Amino acid sequence: MKKPTSWRYPGTFSIFIMDDRLLLICMGIIVGLCSGLAALGLNNALIFIMESLHHSRNYWWAFLLPAAGAMCSSLFLHNIMKDGSGHGVPEVIYSVSKYGGLIRLRSIISRLVSSCLTIGSGGSAGPEAPVVVSGAAIGSNIARFFSLNDRQRITLVGCGAAGAIASIFNAPLTGIIFTMEIILGEWSMVNIIPIAVAAVAGAEISRTLRGNIIAFESSIDFNISHPDLFACVGLALFASIASVLFTRTLRTMHKISKKTDIPFWLKAALGGAAVGILGFFVPEVMGEGYHAIDQMIEGTFKGGIAIAAIGCLAKILATSMTLGWGGSGGIFAPSLVIGSFTGLAYHRLIFLVFPSINWVNEGCFALLGMAGMISGILQAPLTGIFLILEITGSYEVMLPLIIVSALSTTITHYAEPASFYLKELTEKGQLLRPGTDSRVLADISIREVIEKDCIPVYPDMLLRDLIYKVKQSTRNYFPVEDHESGEFLGMIQLDHIKPYIFNNLMYDTVLVEQIMDANPDTVEDDDDLSDVLRKMDMKKCFSLPVISNGKFVGMVSKATLLDKYRDELNVQTSHAF
Fold this sequence. Notes:
Blueprint: H1 12-18, H2 20-53, H3 64-80, H4 89-99, H5 107-120, H6 128-145, H7 150-169, H8 172-184, H9 189-210, H10 226-259, H11 264-281, H12 290-298, H13 305-324, H14 332-353, H15 362-378, H16 381-392, H17 398-415, H18 423-427, H19 437-442, H20 463-472, E1 477-481, E2 488-493, H21 498-501, H22 512-515, E3 523-524, H23 529-539, E4 543-548, E5 551-557, H24 558-572
Parallel strand pairs: 3-4
Antiparallel strand pairs: 1-2, 4-5
């Protein structure tokens, strides 16, 4: 963004525009408030729809409700908004990673409406990811409206995500950490301050309009003893297993859905119907499932180990059917439910095996299971720790929370090297985190490093004429082109023709086409520079010809590329306030 001159913006407004720190903080407040309102809007809409449909849940045809909701959600996304199904957070990460945080305007409402239809009708998903997408889109489009640059736009995307999470959970610290740990993937001063301000703004708008509510506040004081701490190791293992199972089941459902040759809206309806049928037997799988978490944390959930284990597996299956077959929503809420079931089942198991030990209340292990599950599936331990602390207010469990979150993240990483959000991006090579070679090179176009001072030669030229061209040039490479069409035919590299140059007898007998390399390694003018650099390393060469539509446009050299890389790296790492 070009800095405006002082005569255009006199006085205080000029300082505001030119001060990057103040600009991002003020914009962060606006984005945080807007994303907080979006989160509240979705939350109130869900409450309204659930209450409106509550009386219909007892009828035999109630399983058609989530089917209808998922179908309408799918039709809305595909036919009206022209968007894809799922939870959308990987798309936000990809936009930050690849496109400088550019997100379409329609994404502000597309996920909100579609997830409202899916979850409100009984589909097993969470509202957190949709509000993250909406908040991020708000930040992106506000940045675009004010013509901010890529770095500033990425910061405002983070502000939107932080404000949304802070608002829906009433958890500003979690909003900050989730954004820095997962969405942006870096901790830098240029981002933390505006994002922190946005998270506070999002949380405050939530507290103002619906009260300072702690989502799962427990009336029980959890007194942690040494046996409980040792038991946390086993809980982390169980949470890791649940995380891997959830990840792979959801991915499997996606694959099965893609292979099923029926209309997309019918796939979504079938997934919703399956959830509705499952809900007859395990009601806790329907919707967000937060009511079940309340019961488990309070220690009032009825049933034994088998019931808790079945609840865990049923929620995994229901969420996989909802999202894998075309419904819309996130995995945050399901992960919390699955984690609480896992912790509850584990507590009841160790109580059965070691009845003589005075274990802490089972609600504590349900709480710890949530942290382990979130940390495992997202591979973001800080997000898991602070989310559970803020949504339960149980700060006395800090130590076991750290143990479970850290171990669960580590164990899950061995089975699933990439987190749920990053798996697909990593497999496609689309994850370009800040500070990495791929991210720096992604911001450089091959056209920026093309060297165009090469002198072309022609296939019917004599060696004598080629030597004359060599004397005129400062380059060691000479593209061979067709006289009439200009088509690229090959390359002459000076090092390869030295034996001919020093033999005077060949000056008038050897033609260029006889000594040129007719099949040189080339790159296209729209190739990624990371691929170009990889090709140079593999072929052990320092320069490559660049071709566009069969014609030579210049050379790209490793030296020029690395110089540009260094300049871009300096730009990307010199953004501290």
